[in-house]
Amino acid sequence: MSVFLPLLESAADSALVDALGRIGPVIVPSLVQVPVSDTCGRYILFDHDSSFDLDKVVDFLDGGAEKVIIPVSWAKEIAGTLPADRILLLLDVANVSAVTDKIREGVSGVLIKTPALDLDLISSVMRFFSDSSVYVLPTTLESPSQSTIRKILGAKAALVLPTSQLTLGASTKDQINVGEAFVSALTSDRRDGLFATVVSSYPQGGKSLGLVYSSVESIKESIVTGKGVYQSRKHGLWRKGETSGATQDVVHIFLDCDSDAIEFSVIQHGSGFCHLNRLSCFDDLYGLSALERTLQSRLSSAPEDSYTKRLFNDQSLLRSKIMEEADELCHAETKEDVAFEAADLLYFAMTRCVAAGVSLADIERSLDKKAKKVTRRPGNAKPQFAPKAAQPTSVYSVAAPAANGKPNGADNDFIRMRTFDLSVISKVERSQLLRRPVLKSDEMISKVKPIVDEVRDRGDTALLEFTAKFDKVNLSSPVLHTPFPDETTQIEENVRQAIDKAYANIRKFHEAQAENSTLKVETMPGVVCSRFARPIARVGLYVPGGTAILPSTALMLGVPAQVAGCQEIVIATPPKSDGSVSAEVMYVAKLVGASTVLKAGGGQAVAAMAYGTQTVPKVDKIFGPGNQWVTAAKMLVQNDTDALVSIDMPAGPSEVLVIADSTSNPDFVAADLLSQAEHGIDSQVVLVAVNLTSSELDAVEKAVDLQAKALSRVDIVRQSVAKSIIVKTSSVEEAVKFSNDYAPEHLILHLKEASQAVSLVQNAGSVFVGPYSPESCGDYASGTNHTLPTNGYARQFSGVNTLSFQKHITSQEVSADGLKVLGPIVATLADCEGLDAHANAVRIRLRQILN
Ligand SMILES: NC(=O)c1ccc[n+]([C@@H]2O[C@H](COP(=O)([O-])OP(=O)(O)OC[C@H]3O[C@@H](n4cnc5c(N)ncnc54)[C@H](O)[C@@H]3O)[C@@H](O)[C@H]2O)c1
Ligand SMILES: N[C@H](CO)Cc1c[nH]c[nH+]1
């Protein structure tokens, strides 16, 4: 976070803007035309009344702006479409309450305009935007000072200072010197008050040049003049190069993480930084920087027989070598060969750059600018380089919006998946296709931890507070206990009949899975080993309820718990806005014999079941799908040995993979893909096409677009379909191999010989065989369970089943005759491990038997 953020006004003079660019990003209002150097970070402020303009926002971000600062009305439109870490919210004190959870999650911080500097207000904004950056722009700050800057930093926020309040001259009542403002944050832990300062080379990718010291005075002078100025411990202020000519231009000055050391990123002139006339006091250059230096020196003076000189003089030779080396790199196979060929290519590419006056720093700047783009081009190869029969799009553009390069949004956009041909993509690209849209599990775990901790420590009070905060419901009690009042379970007759039939099918299939008999094996005469199952006593079932009410999930978790014989079943689900629980979920709760219904969702519900509260019973195992808050909380509590709780599996967003050949019905295929795409914006659906012609594929794509636009959840579908893929394959075996590697939650086989293909399946949560087995049947009522492993975990996890609610206990009974044979084996192994007591427990008995 910056010490302060300068807000550029149109009257700002260029020397002041340059100085500000050296010490951090600057805020540039979108309508203000002030030239800012390429190396300076820009935050673009949309602080005017014009109507929402997504293209403008995207243009600024693509153009290299680090962030955009947008009003709440714009954030409503943008949240979830553009990366949150590129967006700050512009807030007036008056409109804090207009910020929804969706907006809060869609931004990385806030710039709050406030008439007065109110620390209480700042800390409540801070809490509301937990973990985000908070910048404060006082609309009536009269005299900016170091103490004001420190006061705001103390609240973990940063002050925004308009350029009219900043000066390169001495501070006055109305203006503060830029250097003085910057050093406000510095604290020295040295007796002499100096700051250790690392000097690094900007053009050489941050190579360390040396270690020096700075004083408040030297830093201030450097910021204002843009020259390297330090503090010699013997000779006072040290203007680098004043006598030797080896001056420095300062590009950036950075504070370290605890503000007691500094880095000066400089362009070093003359003989170098070191007094030994070398660039650096540390080691010499290596790698690409060393190559660049050699090439630059060859360009200015090279021996006659130099090959590099020949390349400089013969552009067509250089061109041919670049093409040759690029081709060799593409064909290299081993790690060593790839490194070898890449080094050759870089040598010729750098020769081309140095000949054109392009430096490594120019290349890095270009890379950094590209990394800031929020729209990606499809990445197709130009026709002369494209493989014959196919034009695959880039696998790396997972975050890419629609094929036209704009975020999906306008109603007339074609809703389409991205297409790849397995026969032309590389191994690396294939492995990219197997990955799901990025899941930030570490980040989510740290966000949910405070919620879990609060519920563990403060029980029901915290639980009710979080329900009020996240679900906007004020409850007097978080639970309903049996017997549930009749009015809470009243449902439509047709729904009741459907639930009853689904219950019967699910129960029938799950009863058949129960292990009721004891497994017995006599491993040696007189040595009988057995294994028997017992129910897990107390189970917690999470039934999602954020965007859709899911009584089907209550069935899928409740039936196996009941069949397994669990003694205490707690069902947790977010309350509706009137504080009640959906009657359908309550009906199922009664049907499966739940003893408690917890009216809470998200991380707080998981924590309540893991630790127990005054009213919520503690459980031994937590089951069920949910959004990222639920999943992160489940992962967190299962790792806490104090909670002593396990979970069913790490679940994630819903997904389906459909394998279709030319006998498939395109409308059925499209409907199956969309049935999972509608779950959430992070759902992913995959179509693996087996020898489909372009017109057959076209028919599926058109059906997806047409059906999607008729769905009530079309806004969700637009986003999930944009992240989804079509993979072209040339045989059923190749298609199933891809599916096994992907390990989908659901696998649907739209194949001529669908049932034969089942034998090839190695990894999948549940399989749907043939044209009349839509995945929806498994979601609701066929009898199989719909709580299944996602995100590739079908490689090692099974879906929820009756055994998930049981644990196994083994036992053994050894007779005296049995011990006569087994005993010596055991005693020998115990001796071998040096565990005398183990051996003794056997020998003491053997002695008695033999006597
Ligand atoms: N794999 C499966 O078997 C399966 C089945 C059904 C649903 N799902 C998945 O379950 C998920 C359901 O998600 P959902 O959101 O609809 O319901 P949910 O019940 O999982 O989550 C809603 C709760 O999340 C919490 N929450 C929301 N925003 C928060 C925030 N900013 N901070 C803290 N807590 C917050 C709230 O407490 C809210 O009650 C979807 O991703 C769906 O794909 C999976
Ligand atoms: N398809 C989901 C599992 O990924 C389960 C579900 C519930 N309701 C409808 N579908």
From TrEMBL:
Pfam families from the UniProt entry: Histidinol_dh (PF00815), PRA-CH (PF01502), PRA-PH (PF01503)
Requisite cofactors: Zn(2+)
Keywords: Amino-acid biosynthesis, ATP-binding, Histidine biosynthesis, Hydrolase, Metal-binding, Multifunctional enzyme, NAD, Nucleotide-binding, Oxidoreductase, Zinc
Database matches in SUPFAM superfamilies: ALDH-like (SSF53720), all-alpha NTP pyrophosphatases (SSF101386), HisI-like (SSF141734)
Residue numbers spanned by region Disordered: 371-390
Domain Phosphoribosyl-AMP cyclohydrolase: 211-282
GO process terms (BP): L-histidine biosynthetic process
Record pathway: Amino-acid biosynthesis; L-histidine biosynthesis; L-histidine from 5-phospho-alpha-D-ribose 1-diphosphate: step 9/9; Amino-acid biosynthesis; L-histidine biosynthesis; L-histidine from 5-phospho-alpha-D-ribose 1-diphosphate: step 3/9; Amino-acid biosynthesis; L-histidine biosynthesis; L-histidine from 5-phospho-alpha-D-ribose 1-diphosphate: step 2/9
Protein name: Histidine biosynthesis trifunctional protein
Origin species: Neolentinus lepideus HHB14362 ss-1
Taxonomic lineage from the root: Eukaryota, Fungi, Dikarya, Basidiomycota, Agaricomycotina
